[in-house]
Automatic annotation (TrEMBL):
<feature type="region of interest" description="Disordered">
    <location>
        <begin position="450"/>
        <end position="475"/>
    </location>
</feature>
<feature type="domain" description="Methylmalonyl-CoA mutase alpha/beta chain catalytic">
    <location>
        <begin position="75"/>
        <end position="453"/>
    </location>
</feature>
<dbReference type="InterPro" id="IPR006099">
    <property type="entry name" value="MeMalonylCoA_mutase_a/b_cat"/>
</dbReference>
<dbReference type="GO" id="GO:0031419">
    <property type="term" value="F:cobalamin binding"/>
</dbReference>
<protein>
    <submittedName>
        <fullName>Methylmalonyl-CoA mutase small subunit</fullName>
        <ecNumber>5.4.99.2</ecNumber>
    </submittedName>
</protein>
<dbReference type="Pfam" id="PF01642">
    <property type="entry name" value="MM_CoA_mutase"/>
</dbReference>
<keyword id="KW-0846">Cobalamin</keyword>
<dbReference type="GO" id="GO:0046872">
    <property type="term" value="F:metal ion binding"/>
</dbReference>
<keyword id="KW-0413">Isomerase</keyword>
<keyword id="KW-0170">Cobalt</keyword>
<comment type="similarity">
    <text>Belongs to the methylmalonyl-CoA mutase family.</text>
</comment>
<dbReference type="InterPro" id="IPR016176">
    <property type="entry name" value="Cbl-dep_enz_cat"/>
</dbReference>
<dbReference type="InterPro" id="IPR036724">
    <property type="entry name" value="Cobalamin-bd_sf"/>
</dbReference>
<dbReference type="GO" id="GO:0004494">
    <property type="term" value="F:methylmalonyl-CoA mutase activity"/>
</dbReference>
Length: 670
């Protein structure tokens, strides 16, 4: 008799319960005695292990409201740094027509006189006519405008506000962000045109004026890009963001603002790397930490939510094979939207080449549109909430960052640790760690240290912004410390940016600290490619290497691919031989190749007999460099005596290995 089917099917009860402990036992059996922790739990730069599996026991999910902004959608804000105001305006109008919500102007404002030998980068908007040209046709009453003017945040704000007055834009409707960040400028440039306390006071005055006259605008920004670009971990990034925010909160309340009003005046901006889970957790942790600060300061619940902007970090961008930057930018946008950023900036893929082009800007904004409007990533408040892994990682970052923040406070707060050089020392240590991993390709860079385009040079396509004039000399002013309102009046009367800065008391730096040194992870490899590309252009060919595959191809195929890829990273021409059965065949193949570099690839078991026989013959056949693929171990001295010049193997220092080759080939001076 046929049994009736049940209304609901469930296979859960047909199998025994499988918990974490049972899974762990099976994994350890499969490791055959290897350490579970060493094999499967790498330690992050932040110092805590990343588990291969997270279960309910690892984390108690937090309420989404504690992490997300609660908004529907995200604002797309694009950045502009073209020196020519007319060209910058064309780019702005093109982007606005393409769906950009707000604009960020990187202004050439090297006014401090503390870095006269530095080349500034940004829009040259020093005069009223420059601003009219820059903002011509831009609906300022409907478009958010952010200004990044470094130490000149007050003069730039005055020039912008004067431009708004000329266009009869009501201040009450203005959505501006003046991004006063004096401690960020001090960290980046190592000096300020006024004493640090005077710059903080100027920021406080700007915030008080903005709160009163332009309630939809913000005066202050906490931007940790300078630390991220120096290699900061997520924990350091969060702690420095928090310490700077607290310093600014104190300054603003000292200028008469309530905690709620002060919090409303501060915006936050962070850069994200390509580890998307960590980036998501960093943004979620930032919200938790800032909420804790505002609540502890007596602020109201509705003002605990931070305005948070995210963008792809410059340290992960590359000049070589820049199209891969599209992927890096997409990962950062993805993490920013899932992590709860209110504003995202999509970086054009050719940004490291200098002036960006129409295609790269279109790809940048459309990437954001696809993620938001087609994938709907920003439609859910805190979509990562409840993930055991991300909840754990968020809490780990928040706890560690809070501890480091407290340490900074004990050392005198953000200003104190900057002026003492403590931050620079901390970042130098982690930067060395990161670069060591980059050099050994433990942290690979696609298109640069892995899977490069060896014969394509970026030199011809490279474009650089026009050099800016040196910062002006400032004469003593009889009307120092003028008000912001007076600065706007001066702008209305035709004063330029430098003249307003002078009236505000700007002059040679009185505060000097060790600047935070930026880094890009790809720079060591790009420097090598620059030298090789220049040499190839001068000589009409690239240095050539012949990979000699000796022995059965199957077992050594991974080693052959490794050797070919590593040499190509330097921009060398590389040929790979057919399978060679003996030393005689290898010597003959090299002699016929026309190469000057011989790369010997074989099985480890063959090397003791093969290397002493083949290395001298390769030298006789004209090899200036004989390279062995594999770690020589105890045989290094003997094989060097036989004629091997260098060794390449997994986790070797790749830039140093390439520079060694370049020196022997005459590409690089000894």
């Amino acid at each position: 008799m046929t049994q009736p089917l049940p209304d609901r099917f469930s296979i859960r009860d047909d199998f025994p319960a499988a918990g974490y402990d049972a899974w762990r036992r099976l994994v350890e059996e499969g490791l055959h005695g290897e350490s579970f922790a060493k094999r499967l739990t790498p330690v992050a730069y932040e110092g805590f292990p990343l588990e291969p599996l997270y279960a309910l026991d690892h984390a108690a999910p937090a309420r989404p409201a504690a992490c997300g902004s609660g908004r529907r959608g995200v604002e797309l804000r694009q950045s502009y740094a073209c020196p020519d105001p007319a060209e910058a305006n064309r780019q702005i109008l093109d982007d606005l027509a393409g769906g950009v919500d707000s604009i960020e102007l990187e202004l050439d404002a090297g006014l401090g006189g503390h870095a006269a030998d530095a080349v500034q980068r940004g829009v040259r908007a020093a005069r009223a006519e420059d601003w009219d040209l820059l903002l011509g046709g831009v609906p300022i009453d409907r478009t958010g405008v952010a200004l990044r003017a470094g130490e000149a945040f007050a003069p730039a704000a005055a020039m912008f506000l004067a431009s708004c007055r000329r266009r009869n834009v009501p201040l009450a409707e203005l959505r501006a962000s003046f991004q006063a960040d004096p401690l960020g400028v001090l960290a980046e440039r190592g000096g300020l045109p006024l004493r640090t306390n005077s710059m903080l006071a100027q920021m406080g005055e700007l915030a008080a004026w903005t709160c009163k006259h332009a309630p939809r605008s913000r005066a202050v920004a906490v931007n940790t890009a300078v630390y991220h670009r120096a290699g900061a971990t997520a924990v350091q990034d969060l702690a420095l963001l928090l310490a700077t925010g607290v310093s600014y909160l104190r300054t603003l309340t000292a200028h008469g603002l309530s905690v709620d009003d002060a919090a409303r005046q501060i915006a936050f901006a962070v850069e994200l790397g390509t580890h998307h889970f960590k980036a998501i957790a960093k943004l979620r942790a930032a919200r938790r930490l800032w909420r804790r600060v505002i609540e502890a300061s007596g602020g109201s619940y509705q003002h605990c939510t931070m305005l948070l902007q995210a963008r792809a970090g410059r340290r992960v961008q590359t000049r070589l094979d820049p199209q891969v930057n599209m992927l890096r930018g997409a990962v950062a946008l993805y993490a920013g939207m899932l992590g709860g950023a209110d504003i995202v900036t999509s970086v054009p893929f050719d940004s490291e080449l200098g002036a960006t082009d129409t295609l790269s800007r279109r790809v940048a904004r459309n990437t954001a549109h696809v993620l938001q409007d087609e994938s709907h990533l920003a439609r859910v408040a805190d979509p990562a909430g409840g993930s055991w892994f991300l909840e754990t990682l968020t809490q780990q970052l928040a706890d560690a960052a809070w501890g480091l923040f407290q340490q900074i406070e004990r050392f005198g707060g953000m200003q104190g640790v900057l002026e003492s050089g403590w931050i620079a020392q901390q970042l130098q240590a982690i930067s060395k760690h990161r670069m060591r991993d980059v050099h050994t390709r433990k942290q690979p860079i696609v298109g640069v240290s892995e899977f490069p385009e060896p014969t394509v040079s970026d030199t011809a396509a490279r474009q650089h912004p026009l050099p800016s004039p040196a910062p002006p000399e400032f004469a003593a002013s009889s009307e120092a410390d003028i008000s912001l309102e007076r600065a706007v009046q001066l702008a209305d009367e035709g004063a330029n940016l430098a003249q307003i800065a002078s009236r505000l008391g700007f002059g040679p730096s009185t505060t000097c600290v060790a600047p935070i040194e930026p880094m890009r992870l790809a720079e060591p490899f790009e420097a090598i490619r620059d030298v090789v590309d220049t040499w190839a252009a001068e000589h009409g060919h690239r240095p050539k290497a012949q990979v000699l595959a000796v022995g059965p191809r199957g077992p050594i195929a991974p080693r052959v691919a490794f050797a070919e890829g590593l040499i190509q990273v330097g921009g060398f021409e590389v040929d790979v031989s057919q399978t060679l059965d003996s030393a005689d065949d290898a010597a003959a193949a090299f002699a016929a190749s026309g190469a000057s570099i011989a790369v010997l690839c074989g099985a480890d078991a063959l090397y003791p007999a093969l290397v002493p026989q083949l290395a001298p013959r390769l030298k006789q056949a004209g090899a200036r460099s004989v390279v062995l693929a594999g770690n020589p171990g105890d045989h290094e001295a003997d094989w060097r005596e036989a004629g091997v010049d260098s060794f390449i193997y997994v986790r070797c220092d790749v830039p140093e290995a390439l520079r060694d080759l370049m020196r022997r080939e005459g590409v690089l001076e000894p």
